[in-house]
Prior knowledge:
Strand content: 25-35%
Low-confidence stretches: none
CATH topology of the largest domain: TIM Barrel
Distance between the termini: 31 Å
Helix content: 10-25%
CATH superfamily of the largest domain: Glycosidases
Bound molecules: alpha-L-arabinofuranose
Number of helices: 10
Number of strands: 27
CATH class of the largest domain: Alpha Beta
Radius of gyration: 23 Å
Amino acid sequence: MSTARITLDRDFTIGEVPRRLFGSFVEHMGRCVYTGIYEPGHPEADENGFRKDVLALTKELGATVIRYPGGNFVSGYNWEDGVGPVSGRPRRLDGAWHTVETNGFGLHEFVEWSKLAGTEIMEAVNLGTRGVEAARELVEYANHPGGTYWSDLRRANGAEKPFDIKLWCLGNELDGPWQIGHKTADEYGRLAQEAAKAMKFVDPDIELVAVGSSGSGMPTFGDWEHTVLGHAYDEVDYVSMHAYYQEQDGDAPSFLATSIDTDQFIESVVSTIDAVKARGRHKKTVNISFDEWNVWYQRGLDTPDQPHNVGKTWREHPRLIEDTYNVTDAVVVGTLLNSLLRHGDRVKIANQAQLVNVIAPIRSEENGPAWRQSIFWPFARMAELARGQILRAAVNSDRIDTAKFGDADLVDVSSTWDEENGRVALFLANRSLDEAADVEVTLNGFAPGRVTRAEVLEVPEGGDRFTSNTEAAQDQVGLRPLAGVSVEGTRMSLRLPPLSWAVVEVEVSRG
Length: 511
Ligand code: AHR
């Protein structure tokens, strides 16, 4: 048995929970849009062709903001192809994913779908093959009330009221040689600056995300952020981060400690931003939009029946990177969310990539069912319960040894205090593969009362750490009640099973 002591204090807060941390991502890639959120003719499709089963799961997931339409896709995309009568929209080759894009789904459809999902839109502009002109025209189309060419075109296309999209990405991963329209940091920094200026001339209320590094392993990491912000610091509000993780060579302990990498990555980008701020004597603070993150088993995009980017076969919505997630992945996703929340003073937006089918918490089959993957659960519960103030948790935990990160806390945690409804929530992971952990939580400055939620995700009976949900067995991995949570004075005690993620919520008054 291992142990962990966690101390929370009402006065030690990190900041308000940025609700945009619980974002997701819909890219025109694989089956995320087509046969994911949109499938006319499906028994569950509404009159727009939106799948009601996927929509219901999206609401249950609790995503707050959704990035669209890419991803690598956006760097070769003409937004105009996706507006106007569907019958007149062009079929195009999408070079990013070697796919035929029908344009049956575009901006208006996404706006309508977002209204039903109750999610904010985060729209990306193409700074790969296009530039300042197309970006500012899209802002005019989306946000200007009317009386001009582009805003009147929107009205003619059926949307009298502006879409009022506040959040915009200035391109995607342009530091990556794989990107259509890949650029050097200087080329991108100047383009981002000019596009940002022109977009804000049209609508000064928008918020803009500059492209940061596609990962901390990029050879230009650090220099890229420094140079880009050197050009565009005044014009942008956020810089992006992307990170994907996977278990390698069966090294589960390192994989389970992955959030250490996330912590370090975030702290490095914060340092770079603040160095540019200091050097340029800027007053405002640029924050972080961690707008792609997840577990992704990067085996390559090709499967025997679905070759990608090779040969002469072009398909509509092929199956791409449809990872099936297991118990271990769910625990890791819980710790990644903990890292994001612990850095909520600077990470203001985060988008799990992606929403449906493509490395996603939701899976759906064409003309078939939709179900929750294991990673659905930590996201859904944190999106539901992480509200109010983020509490700074002091953790004194037994340690595990990892090949990649050295020593790591066995128990990982983040916590929030919602003063309005008088509740403290804790999100906990036990990284040990074989030992339960006894956890004692001290809640200084609080008088804890009734435990209002106690749930755990662990290896199911008869399963192992690789157990996952499938079309045939959709509920093998999920949450079950966590028994034995007790409160005495300012102390709360609980036991985490081996390899588990748990949520505990307790009523509190000021102590
Ligand atoms: O999310 C899948 C892809 O990963 C995105 O299109 C791209 O931005 C990233 O490399």
